[in-house]
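Example A, followed by Example B.
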Amino acid sequence: MNFNTISINNNLILRIVRPEVYSFVFSNYNDEELIEFFGFTTPEELTKEKKRHEKGMTTFNKTFIFFHILENDKNVGWCGFHTWYTDHARAEIGYVLSNEASKGKGIMSVVLKAVIDYGFNTMNLHRIEAFVGPNNVPSLKLMEKYHFTKEGHLREHYFKNNKMEDSVVFSLLKSDYIPIN
């Protein structure tokens, strides 16, 4: 399968993963290849992803599109849109850098610009939503940098590390988006 990519700079490439790519790799790759493709660091992450795939990733009006972040051809994380409501032209953005050596280098700041641009210009989104932990300082700074509007605080909204955590709700409307160079 030919994977579509977006080149960010000499070191960074985004590999586009749509539902059909997801199905292809699970049908054709062995566990070792899947771990490398997804950039997992443990077999437990692969097991969790296999279960998610078995449950199905799309419905009649909800789907996803995300981008593997390839730094020097190694998968170091992802950024993209899960919970994309096609009928309503809105999606929730999410992102993770799974490689510790890649953190703190401004990678997500560069990637987020490309993904937001893709969302508004290619997916024709009207609204991008983000849910951020109130103590997640790097993500809160990204929301500020990209002029997301804080809309509220959801109590015990997200299950992480075996406990319920709050989320701060942000949105960015296409009409409010100011591309950053």
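Example B, a separate protein, is given below in the same form.
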Amino acid sequence: MRLADRVVVLSRRPGRIREIVTIAMTRTERGGIDARGKLLGLQNQLWSLIRDEAIDAEREVQHA
């Protein structure tokens, strides 16, 4: 998995910065076998930041 050193999470509307998540691993560490758990935790953290807005967006598309 390749990631930047930071991930900027934006709100849906208006598009504003909700949070900046710093990746607390070096790029070399991210490729290691033992990084899998940390990366899954990061994935969960990022998904929790966008989950509600993603669900709202899906509902909007379905009712359009």
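On Example B: The radius of gyration is 14 Å.
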